[in-house]
């Protein structure tokens, strides 16, 4: 009876990466308890109710195939053979992994009010850049083909550092910026998008019509062999390299 109370919180945790056909998904048989009664535990894995294998490692990796939907559970090989609730992993869309938990206890551990509860993993995040020639800015969009619910909170990173004050899927930057940006959905920080480095050469291809800008003053500053123009317009100070 004591053993049951220690290990009854077994659960399967799903750790996807950026999914493509043949890539790997990692399942972990997890418990919050220290397995002191079983110094060398053996884990048993089940797929769709059938035993797959047993091993001393709490992790199981499998190769992704498009269109699959399978249920997984794990157990400890002990006298009670206690098992976790099933977790269904749906790879119908490789850009939008769906993991469904069927247990009320497991659902309470993740942010959801629905039973059974489904967690969606956006695995194809990318930063898209759109020009705003009138404002001399660029709009960065954290984009995914996955349909996300419940108005998710986004996390932005500049040069690898989190920008805590940015929580929307869009973010505006000046055209003069040459930093590297990436993004993630809160709760799935391990699925961060690839970094997108901004370039001044991109700005020149957008055909900004400088003649439409009301110039108040132009100051030329010589930096070695480079001439930098600080153009003061009616709204703000912008920087162009020539």
Q: What would you say this structure looks like, in words?
A:
With 242 residues, the chain is mainly beta. The protein has three domains: 2-122, Sandwich (Immunoglobulin-like), CATH 2.60.40.10; 126-199, Immunoglobulins (Immunoglobulin-like, Sandwich), CATH 2.60.40.10; 209-242, no CATH class. Helix content is 6%, strand content 45%. The chain contains three helices and 19 strands. It has helices at 2-7, 104-107, 200-204, and strands at 11-16, 24-30, 43-47, 50-55, 59-63, 69-76, 87-90, 96-101, 117-122, 126-132, 137-143, 154-158, 161-163, 170-174, 180-185, 196-197, 215-223, 226-233, 237-241. It has a six-stranded antiparallel sheet with strand order 4-3-6-7-8-9. Strands 13-12-15-16 form a four-stranded antiparallel sheet, with no helix packed on it. The longest helix has 6 residues, at 2-7. It is elongated. Residues 1-7, 104-115 and 208-242 have low confidence and may be disordered.
Short note summarizing the structure:
By secondary structure, the protein is mainly β.
């Amino acid at each position: 009876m004591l053993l049951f109370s220690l290990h009854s919180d077994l659960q399967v945790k799903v750790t996807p990466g950026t999914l493509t056909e043949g890539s790997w998904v990692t399942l972990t048989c997890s418990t919050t308890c220290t397995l002191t009664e079983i110094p060398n535990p053996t884990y048993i894995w089940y797929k769709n109710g059938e035993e797959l294998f047993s091993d001393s490692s709490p992790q199981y990796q499998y190769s992704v195939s498009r269109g699959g939907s399978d249920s997984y559970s794990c157990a400890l090989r002990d006298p009670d053979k206690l098992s976790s609730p099933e977790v269904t992993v749906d790879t119908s869309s490789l850009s939008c992994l769906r993991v469904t938990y069927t247990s009320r206890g497991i659902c309470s551990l993740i942010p959801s009010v629905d039973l059974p509860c489904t967690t969606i993993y956006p695995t194809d995040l990318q930063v898209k850049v759109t020009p705003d020639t009138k404002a001399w800015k660029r709009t960065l969009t954290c984009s995914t083909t996955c349909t996300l619910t419940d108005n998710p909170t986004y996390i932005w990173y500049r040069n690898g550092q989190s920008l805590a004050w940015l929580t929307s899927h869009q973010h505006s930057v000046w055209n003069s910026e040459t930093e590297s940006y990436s993004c993630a959905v809160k709760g799935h920080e391990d699925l961060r998008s690839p970094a997108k480095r901004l370039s001044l050469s991109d700005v020149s291809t957008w055909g900004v019509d400088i003649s439409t800008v009301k110039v108040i003053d132009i100051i030329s500053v010589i930096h070695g062999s480079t001439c930098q123009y600080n153009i003061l317009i009616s709204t703000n100070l912008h920087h162009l390299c020539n």
